[in-house]
Amino acid sequence: MVRLLKRLVFICIILIVTPVIFFAITFFIVTSEPAPPNTSATLVTDVTQLNQIKVDAAIQPTSIEEISVLIKSHDGPISIGGARHSMGGQIATEKALHLDMRKYNKILLLDTLKKEIRVQTGITWRQIQEVIDRHNLSVQIMQTYANFTVGGSLSVNVHGRYIGHGPIIHSVKSISIILADGSLVEASPRQNADIFYGCIGGYGGLGVIVEATLQLTDNCKVERIDQHMTVDDYPNYFKTQIRNNESIIFHNADIYPNDYTDIHAVSYQKTEKPLTITDRLNPIDSNYKVERFAIWLVSEFPRGKWLRQHVGDPLFFSSDQVKWRNYEAGHDAAELEPTSRKNSTYVLQEYFVPIDRFQSFVPTMAAILNQHHVNMVNVSVRHAKKDSLSVLSWARSEVFCFVLYYKQGTSESEQQEVGVWTRKLIDAAISEKGSYYLPYQLHATKNQFERCYNRIGDFIQLKKRLDPTNKFRNKFWDKYNPSANLK
Q1: Model confidence over 411-437: pLDDT tens digits?
Q2: Under a CB-based contact definition with an 8 Å cutoff, are residues 248 and 271 in contact?
Q3: For position 287, what pLDDT does the model report?
Q4: Which of 157, 190, 209, 459 is deepest in the core (most CB within 10 A)?
Q5: Mutual angle of helices 412-431 and 358-371, in 10-degree steps
Q6: Distance between CA 318 and CA 254 in Å, rounded?
Q7: CB atoms < 10 A from the CB of 486, how many?
Q8: If you average pLDDT over residues 220-242, what whole number do you get?
Q9: Residue 40: what pLDDT?
Q10: How high is the pLDDT of residue 41?
């Protein structure tokens, strides 16, 4: 009997490992060719490669004076872009003057006593980390990946995996904005507050955010802890173990597709234990072949999702891990980047649901995704406290954030199919008194947008005052700006 069991185990291993090796060889052969460069100086696109937008010119300014002159002297539309990780045309529109802010990236002031930093908004979070880490300081709120620019992060009002925090607006002390007439305005919760609350999360519709003062915090060592459970058990686990635990810095929980019944909760808590990873920051010269192969395996191999849940994750999380907060906050988006996005691409979506609606939303979400055979790579659950500040707030109550990372085809019919199930998910979130996130593909109807962002009227009135000729535009505002008076 024992021999028979051993043979069965051996056969199972062969059945699993052999095709994996075959697919691995195929993957590395297929991905050995580098992606062709973008040779068009006037073609602006985002990371998904789904939105190819022809602009009149793309300029990389390096000073406030240059930006002001460009805005004052240009009569047509102006669009603004940074690292280009928004995924639905939020960075450009046809025939626009596109301001590529990535060369506008200096640190202007670092006050280590107040734990504040003043930066030009084309700077990336990684560039900030390389400076503040020397002073054992850390960014208070940012997204998981450090490649994004500060300006882009402010414009979409990002959030991360930080427990006890919400969107980035809670950590911003002040901003400077260049308006449609070329004037420079300082805004904060106490000065020009309407502009401050409109521009953060305003998707470049009111002006160019050129400087920002951000609140920092202390760097510290963090220890990884994780636990598997059913989806039904997660809300109580979160409320009793995570929500009010001041030692927890980062937290997220991954729901495994395609069953969507099991969840893996991962937290990083403060510790004084010895480091297992001694580097202070994530290395920036990795090729990420293993990470990219893992994502490809999950999305392409017939048993890939099972292997990730039952083999890959248990192996990866089997060892203890202690690292610096800045290391964990400095992930590189390149680890997600496939060699080619020509025939298929990886895309994000996100939905926000009040925390007491978690258990009713998940099965509805799962049913929609499975009905449409969505090739889901991961569903990551985050947490955010209520945001009553930004005009276009996505967290009108304390929420769980469902971050969907999936693979889709690039053909017109495949993009249309994504639109069908996206609108169903938005309706599902609305039915739970929730919302959806705006930096992604523009599949939502105008009615859905206005139901989720019910202060859009206040935003448009502010835009009429600050940008009466509708100079600041992009594909997002071209679709969802409801004012008939703006040409």
Answers
A1: 999 999 999 999 999 999 999 999 999
A2: no
A3: 84
A4: 157
A5: 160
A6: 17
A7: 16
A8: 98
A9: 43
A10: 52
For range 203-231, the mean pLDDT: 98
Instruction: Give a three-class secondary structure readout of the chain.
Output: CHHHHHHHHHHHHHHHHHHHHHHHHHHHHHCCCCCCCCCCCCEECCCCCCCCEECCEEECCCCHHHHHHHHHHCCCCEEEECCCCCCCCCCCCCCCEEEEHHHCCCEEEEECCCCEEEEECCCEHHHHHHHHHHHCEEECCCCCECCCEHHHHHHHCCCCCECCCCCHHHHEEEEEEECCCCCEEEECCCCCHHHHHHHCCCCCCCCEEEEEEEEEEECCEEEEEEEEEEHHHHHHHHHHHHCCCCCEEEEEEEECCCCCCEEEEEEEEECCCCCCCCCCCCCCCCCCHHHHHHHHHHHHCCCHHHHHHHHHHHHHCCCCCEEEHHHHCCECHHHHCCCCCCCEEEEEEEEEEEHHHHHHHHHHHHHHHHHCCCEEEEEEEEEECCCCCCCCCCCCCCEEEEEEEEEEECCHHHHHHHHHHHHHHHHHHHHCCCEECCCCCCCCCHHHHHHHCCCHHHHHHHHHHHCCCCCECCHHHHHHCCCCCCC
Residues in the chain: 487
Torsion region of 413: left, alpha or beta (phi above 0 gives left; psi -120 to 50 gives alpha): alpha
CA distance 440 to 420: 15
Looking at domain 224-450, its CATH class is alpha beta
CA–CA separation, 262 and 254 (whole Å): 8
Report how far residue 204's alpha carbon sits from residue 151's, in angstroms, rounded to the nearest whole number.
9
Tell me what pLDDT residue 9 has.
Answer: 37
> How many angstroms separate the CA atoms of 245 and 235, rounded?
15
Q: What is the pLDDT of residues 127-176, one digit of tens each?
A: 999 999 999 999 999 999 999 999 999 999 999 999 989 999 999 999 99
Determine the average pLDDT of the residues in 217-245: 98
- Phi, psi angle pair for 276, to nearest 5°: -95, -20
Quote the mean pLDDT of the chain: 91
pLDDT, tens digit (0-9, with 9 covering 90-100), for 278-305: 999 999 878 888 888 999 999 999 899 9
> What distance lies between CA 365 and its chain's CA centroid?
20
Q: How many whole angstroms separate alpha carbon 312 and alpha carbon 314?
A: 6
